[in-house]
Amino acid sequence: MPSDDGLPLLRQRSGGGLAPRRWALRQESVLSLLTALLLLGIGLGIWVYGTLPTSDRNEHPYEYALETERIHQHLVQFLEIASKHNNSRSVATGHAASAEYVEQQLRWHGDCDIQRQHFLSPVWAVRGVPRLRVRGPVSINYIFETDFQIMRYGGQSANITDAPVVQVAGGACVAGEIGDVRDKVALVRHSGRCTAFEAAFALEQLGARAVVFARPLRFKTPSRARVRITDWKEGDPLMRVPVLSVTGSVGQLLASVAGDGRVDIETDTSIDVVKTFNLICVGRTGDPTSTVVVGSHLDSVAAGPGINDNGSGSASTLEICLTLARMKYRPRSRLVFAWWGAEEDGLLGSRHFARVLAKGWKNRWTDTERIDVRWQDIALNLNFDMLASPNYIALVHNGTDAPGRAQRGSQRIQRVFENYFARHSYSYRITDMLAGSDFVPFIDNGIPAGGVLTGAGELKSIDERRVHGGLAYAALDTCYHRDCDTLLNINMVALHRMSRAAMHAVAIMTGRPDLRAFLDGASQ
Ligand SMILES: *[C@@H]1O[C@H](CO)[C@@H](O)[C@H](O)[C@H]1NC(C)=O
Ligand SMILES: *[C@@H]1O[C@H](CO)[C@@H](O)[C@H](O)[C@H]1NC(C)=O
Ligand SMILES: *[C@@H]1O[C@H](CO)[C@@H](O)[C@H](O)[C@H]1NC(C)=O
Ligand SMILES: CC(=O)N[C@H]1CO[C@H](CO)[C@@H](O)[C@@H]1O
Ligand SMILES: [Zn+2]
Predict the structure, then answer these.
(1) What is the pLDDT along the chain (524 residues), one digit of tens a residue?
(2) Same-domain check for residues 114 and 226
(3) Where are the transmembrane segments (predicted)?
(4) Among this protein's residues, is 343 annotated catalytic?
């Protein structure tokens, strides 16, 4: 992989992306060949330098017009906003201020109509260290995070003392089989055919004071899985009683005392339902029946400012929008830019968008808010989440993962990104497109999607390091979902390459006269 491709030298944090050169030739036997190659190489180099970059630049003017430094400036603003909101841009903290900044930029320099789409989002927080204690001949205080966890969205604060434990038969999935749990702590050891939320909620309805899920013995740690309806919406229930997860061995002990053993559970948590919104900017030109939705999420997790995750995606989306406006771009297909809210709480913003547009669902704001997009008019979705992980790998979503009607078009989108990386001789890898970001509601509702990203908490292997450079045995983003996800966590080379990949796809897709036919595979 070339380490110098004519890019301005940007601040690079950890060497991500610079691959070691591998010398495969044995010098002594091929000296003359080398000389010939060298001359050829110089010739080629002059030719490439003289012609390719300029023609490539002429063929892809929008891609080259995108300035990484401007994206960085938006990130500086996001960080400033986070610092004024308890170091976070989550739904409960700096999200609204981030959206106001984006809106202001769009008003001043954009070429689209700004619309807000409001929805409710549950916000969950653990405010103090919880306690779990078994009373018996020998009392045991269990250790938080080692022996037990509070599952996410697992209830309001509670102070339960000396409550009997009862083990629930089956997976707590069939009300008739559950038995008497009223005023008891329900222990569930065998997960059944329903989700953790369905089991926990059924137990709460039957009067349980708390629910404890024991993990199978092979797991050494308790779980922080979510006990909430995945695509929660206004009106749906949330857990009120505490829901804990314990390791298999703690579960075994609790089961052995069930019947006469008693426990204390103390939690200091909160679930609040807050109003948040998606920020949508609907383009003024281009064919509305062939709309391209370019999205990224604007919120961060509560734990940190989210400058890579996912500020890098939303800042890039913003700058793509502003750059196209500056260049007076006239797309053939209409462009709609979206900054989703509440992604970190389970893609709630993009799910809300799909629910309202695809399914005609109404919440109490639907009638007063105008969103000028019809679901059947959306040709595709491009999603840009994390684009600047310090130890990055350029990742392209695998279109074949998209189900049913969305698959063919998603494969086409994947190819467009691959063409960009191949043209620049940048290394990249295909990654799945199953879960984890805002493309999900699109592919699940028949709309092709795709996108690029640079990786999160997963470790880079030695083989990947050989191909993609950077550090082996280190996370692609060590600061993923942590308070150190700040400007220092931004790899400028990654940001440069990935944001231009994004711009490339936006320009190629909205520049085609036959976008729908192209996505159907009918046209090349
Ligand atoms: C600020 O964040 C810290 C750490 O996440 C948390 O403990 C604290 O309660 C937060 N304060 C406010 C006012 O939200
Ligand atoms: C919980 O209840 C116990 C016993 O009633 C009490 O000693 C303890 O202070 C309570 N804890 C909280 C946080 O209220
Ligand atoms: C893409 O996904 C399909 C199935 O979803 C899988 O068979 C294929 O191997 C994947 N491709 C790559 C390059 O990972
Ligand atoms: C690319 C990537 O890792 N994006 C992350 C953005 O935030 C969501 C929600 O926490 C993660 O699941 C995604 O993985
Ligand atoms: Zn995240």
Answers:
(1) 233 333 333 333 333 333 333 444 455 555 565 566 666 666 665 555 555 567 899 999 999 999 999 999 999 998 889 888 878 777 777 888 899 999 999 999 999 999 999 999 998 999 999 999 999 778 899 999 999 999 999 999 999 999 999 998 766 777 777 889 999 999 998 767 889 999 999 999 999 999 999 999 988 899 999 999 988 999 999 999 999 999 999 999 999 887 788 999 999 999 999 899 999 999 999 999 999 999 998 876 777 777 777 688 999 999 999 999 999 999 999 999 999 987 767 789 999 999 999 999 988 888 788 889 999 999 999 999 889 999 999 999 999 999 999 999 999 999 999 999 999 999 999 999 998 889 999 999 999 999 999 999 999 999 999 999 999 999 999 988 888 888 888 999 999 999 999 999 999 999 999 999 999 987 76
(2) no
(3) 30-50
(4) yes
Give a yes or no: residue 35 inside a domain: no
Closest ligand 4 atom to the C-alpha of 454? 1
Do residues 255 and 335 both lie within one domain? no
Q: Say if CB 376 and CB 454 are below 8 A apart.
A: no
DSSP per residue, 438-479: TTHHHHHTT--EEEEE---SPBPPHHHHHHHBS-TTSBS-TT
Which ligand 2 atom is the nearest neighbour of the CA of 268? 13
> Which protein residues touch ligand 2 with a CB less than 6 Å away?
159, 161, 266
Asked if residue 332 and residue 231 are part of one domain, the reply reads no
Residue 309 Cα to ligand 4 middle (Å): 7
**Residues 261, 385: one domain?**
no
**Claim to verify: residue 172 and residue 105 sit in the same structural domain:** no
Q: Which amino acid is at 98?
A: S
Quick one: 312 and 230 in the same domain? Answer: no
Q: Is 407 in the pocket of ligand 3 (CB under 6 A)?
A: no
- Whether 281 and 210 map to the same domain: the answer is no
What are the counts of helices (DSSP H) followed by strands (DSSP E) for the chain? Answer: 15, 14
430 in contact with ligand 3, CB cutoff 6 A: yes
Phi, psi of 26 (to 5 degrees): -85, 115
Full domain range(s) for residue 189: 128-267
Residues 6+ apart with CB under 8 A from 282: 112, 113, 115, 334, 336, 371, 372, 373
Q: Does any domain span residue 21? A: no
- Three-state DSSP state, 171: coil
- Ligand 1 centre and the CA of 200: distance in Å? 28
Q: Report the separation in Å between the CA atom of 86 and the middle of ligand 1, taken as the mean of its atom positions.
A: 6
User: What's the 443 CA to ligand 4 centre distance in angstroms?
Assistant: 17
Q: Count the domains in the chain.
A: 2
- Asked which of 239, 267, 295 is the last residue of a domain, the reply is 267
46 is a domain residue: no
Per the CB < 8 A criterion, the answer to whether 472 and 462 are in contact is yes
Is the peptide bond prior to 308 cis by the omega test (within 30 degrees of 0)? no
**376 with 239, same domain?**
no
Is residue 462 in a domain?
yes
Residue 401, ligand 3, Cβ within 6 A? yes
Task: Tell me which of 161, 162, 269 to substitute to probe ligand 2's pocket, judged by most ligand atoms within 8 Å of the beta carbon.
Answer: 161
CATH of residue 193:
3.50.30.30
Q: Which ligand is nearest to the CA of 385?
A: 4
Residue 309: CATH number of its domain? 3.40.630.10
Size of the chain, expressed as the number of residues it contains: 524
Ligand 4 atom nearest 435 alpha carbon = 12
